[in-house]
Amino acid sequence: MQRTRVHNFSISLDGFAAGEPQSFETPFGHAGQRLHQWMMATRFWSEQGSDGVDNAFAVRHSDGIGAEIMGANKFGPPGWADDPSWRGWWGENPPFHTPVYVLTQHERPPLEMEGGNVFHFLKASPAEALATAKQAAGELDVRIGGGATVVRDFLAAGLIDHLHLVVVPIVLGRGARLWYGLEEVQEGFDVESVGSPSGVTHLTFTRRDTAS
Amino acid sequence: MQRTRVHNFSISLDGFAAGEPQSFETPFGHAGQRLHQWMMATRFWSEQGSDGVDNAFAVRHSDGIGAEIMGANKFGPPGWADDPSWRGWWGENPPFHTPVYVLTQHERPPLEMEGGNVFHFLKASPAEALATAKQAAGELDVRIGGGATVVRDFLAAGLIDHLHLVVVPIVLGRGARLWYGLEEVQEGFDVESVGSPSGVTHLTFTRRDTAS
Prior knowledge:
Two copies of one chain form a homodimer. By secondary structure, chain A is α/β, with parallel strands linked by helices. Chain A contains five helices and eleven strands. Chain A has a nine-stranded mixed β-sheet. In chain A, strands 2-9 form a two-stranded antiparallel ribbon. The longest helix of chain A is centred in the middle third of the chain and has 12 residues, at 126-137. Chain A is globular. Chain A binds chain B through residues 13-15, 167, 169-174, 179, 181-186, 191-196, 199-201, 203, and chain B through 13-15, 167, 169-174, 179, 181-186, 191-196, 199-201, 203. Chains A, B: Residues 8-187 form the Bacterial bifunctional deaminase-reductase C-terminal domain.
């Protein structure tokens, strides 16, 4: 059965997935790289990286994924929609290697890049975007790539089957908030938690009726 | 060296230490008992309880503590200060067995109860209250007993040496918020995290210059 999954989604103790202000120079605002250092230290990120619990979670990012849905704020800094030459953060061979659906108010023609990356720009509800992405993914799963608003919207709509959060032990105080409007969202999920020697906590939410 | 400690302070994933509304019937609002079920299932709470990682943390509550400071909202439901007969939630032999300093705008004479419990009602800043409590505690440590506002105020004032949080995998959406105004509070602390089979995550913050 096709599932809709979130992986390696990092938040602060107070639930922010990015600081502020977000800009070209500081994509995660005052959080800097602190939310993702745990991942950059894994073998998933570089061959010199660690191969323990953090890596075991990190590598699931691409495993069996046939399409990604991301928010406009992940594709570029504020204002990118007004710049026809903006092609994302990731160079000419982005790390997705699947169709990617960018949810935006500003539709534009698809952008085909190297390595099987094709960006589609979609003005659609979460359910509509997911139907499109599932079709593109064939038998494979769909990853919801963030940022916080998109993960929150898909959770609120009941569309997530598996959510992997990484709680980083910092308090950001302000930024892009995951939990807002998600009262009792844990219902229907099995939740597990494990601490890592790196200091982060991995939380998984697995929807009961889709657990294998 | 005397330390100021917080133990068994339970919060939801979104950082609430109580739901709402708080009342005599529902001291933790819509959270009910869900934030403290992990503790009620330990041997610390009852002889039939579990004796694993949750209990190992839970029993530290009273270990070496010579006084507690609590907020007005922990001592009673909204309005208790207008009721001269209110003597706390805990019956005639409360579980503190030390002097307890209740921070309140409404001072009243000390309340002496069984088992070494003496409640003092204090209109004071965190630093003033702590100085008083430390003197009463002798060589022992002082526990900051909550609620969220009191823990937050003492953290913001840099007065906490050891903080034990228990993150319960529920999303409350509203209530008494711990993290507000605590940007970068983790600085100066060593933070550890461990998941428990019960589903909760224990987080400890230990101030570096007081770690033994």
